[in-house]
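Materials and Methods. Structural model of glutathione transferase. The 221-residue sequence of glutathione transferase from Chloroceryle aenea was retrieved and submitted for structure prediction as follows.
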Amino acid sequence: MSGKPKLHYFNGRGRMESIRWLLAAAGVEFEECFLETKDDLTKLQKDGSLMFQQVPMVEIDGMKMVQTRAILGYIAAKYNLYGKDLKERALIDMYVEAIIDLNELLMTHTFQPADKKEQHFATIVDKATNRYFPVYEKVLKDHGQDFLVGNRFSRADVQLLETLLMAEECKPDILAKFPLLQSFKARISNISTIKKFLQPGSQRKPPLQEKDVPKLMKIFH
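The predicted structure was written out as tokens:
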């Protein structure tokens, strides 16, 4: 049996994408088992693999882990991406929770009804540029280090980069007023494991397209 983590999800971003990012950043190879039909999900549910009957699910270290935040926390701790002490971990958690809030907004944009899309887009831009990005810009300015916490690479850096790139897919000039975040994006993108993940042909998934939504609905509803 392979020692690689095995990821169970559909062949797309969703809530698994941050897990892919974190494993890739840690230099960990992983396998993926894609849900193609409703039956694939039902099989996992019936054989007891899904504690709360839902994916993402990651097989790692003899466990079948569910709940995205729990999985991310385990991977971060296992691969030393979670700060050097409790205070750093608390700071990383605060930064990450806000990143996840913004990530959720970005992730759900494709699923908005046509008449709500414009307002949803305006909400994304407003929250990104007025609530979230100014905080990270200030953090980088105040401590003058390459990374968000403790001048060492952590899950906060990985998850912020992922979300910055998603935000730019949504609005290419969204970082225009944030020079330190632009520098951060370039710097973190150049870390060898991340650089590899950003190359074509990696296990990073493309943005979800509207044409993909009906297929997902058939699996999950």
